[in-house]
Structure formats: C-alpha cells, structure tokens
Amino acid sequence: MKKDNQEQEVEHKDAGSNATSAIAGLVIGGLAGAGAALLLAPQSGKETRAQIQEKTIEIRDRAAESVDDAVAQVKSKTHEISDGVRGKAKELQHQGQDLLTDQVDNVRGKAHELQHKGQEMIVDQLDHISAAAEAGKAAIAPEPEKTTVKKH
Fold this sequence. Notes:
By secondary structure, this protein is mainly alpha-helical. It has one domain (2-131). It has helices at 2-40, 45-140. Helix 1 (2-40) runs antiparallel to helix 2. The termini are far apart.
C-alpha cells in the first residue's frame, strides 16, 4: 500500500512538472517569437507594437489554457487516488469485520464448551456428595434390634 501511494505521488509530481514545463515552454517560445518578429519586421513601429500586443494576448491565452489543463489533470488524478484510498479502506473494513466475526464465533464456541464441562463437573460432584450423604446416613442410623423369640 505504501508503494502504491509513493507511485501515485511520483505520478502526481510528474503531472505537475509536465504542466510547468509546458507553460514555461510556451512563455519562452512566445517571447523568442516576439523578439524575432521585432527584429525582422518590415513594418512600422505602430504596426509592430500592435502585433506584439496580439501575440502577447495569444501567448497569455495559451498559457491560461495550459494552466487550466494542468489543473484539470491534477484534479482528475486526485479523484482517482482518493477513490483508490476509499476502496482500500472499505476492503480493510470488511476484512476487519470478518476477522472480528470469526473471533467472536470462536469465543462463543469455547464459552459453550466450558459451560458444558462445568455442568458435567457439577453433576459429578453432586453424585459424590449424594453418595457420601447416603454413606453418612447409613453410618449414623442405629442398627435394628434383633428380636429374640422367647420359648415358653
């Protein structure tokens, strides 16, 4: 799980790095193009300034689109990662519940077994006590008198 998170972080950083590189490329390319246009333009200064203004607006718009695309990619990746985390959390929750249910069933079975053994021991002890009580009664009871028959 740690490895998946690390891979996702690397992908996330790569996506941000790619977007930054694209924006930087657009800005640098736009500036180089504008500079070249200034140097090589066969037109008046007014026309050149208007053209520079148009190119600047065009570059700004492209940069804004690139930023919007990068933000959309980051949001998409974030949703993907959070969905994955939610799925793993649910999976772990179900595994935990299954494990808990198994342990509860195991404890109940052992408790039932111990209860049964305890009942058997009580019955055995009651049998011993009963036998001892009978033996005690027999020892205490007076012996019956022998009746002698008198002969007349």
